[in-house]
Amino acid sequence: MTTEATTEASTxxxxxxxxxxxxxxxxxxxxHPDNKxxxxxxxxxxxxxxxxxxxxxxxxxxxxxxxxxxxxxMKIVVEGxxxxxxxxxGQEMVAKARDAIFFPKGSRIAFSTPSYAxxxxxxxxxxxxx
Length: 130
Hints:
This protein is mainly beta. It has a single domain (24-129), classed as Jelly Rolls. It has one helix and ten strands, in the order βαβββββββββ. Strands 3, 4, 5, 6, 7, 8, 9 and 10 form an eight-stranded antiparallel beta sheet that branches. Strand 3 (36-44) and strand 4 form a beta hairpin. This is Ethanolamine utilization protein.
C-alpha cells in the first residue's frame, strides 16, 4: 500500500511516498524455475526517476540463482544472509542482515543462502529490465 502526501498541487513539489508491506507476496522469478527466488519492484522509475527499487527474497536450494546485471545496483540485506559469488572472477563474499552490497553493471552474480534471505535493492535502470 502506497501513501502519498497531497501537497503537489498546492506547492508544486513532488510528495514523498511511504509503502507498507511491499516485501509480502513477491512474485516468483519464473526465469529461474529451479530456484526459490522472488522479486518485485516497489517503485518503478517514479516521477521519471532513473531508479527502481524493491525487494528480493531467496530460499535455500541446491543450485545458486545466477543473475546478470545490465545496470548498477545496491542492496541492503534485511534478513538472513546471502552467499555471493561473481561467476566470472570467482570473488566470494557473505552478506548478512544490515550489510550493504554494490553490484556494478556487467556483474554475473550467483546468489545462494543457507536458509533464507531478504534484501531491499535500488537499481539504476528502466523498469523493463527487471
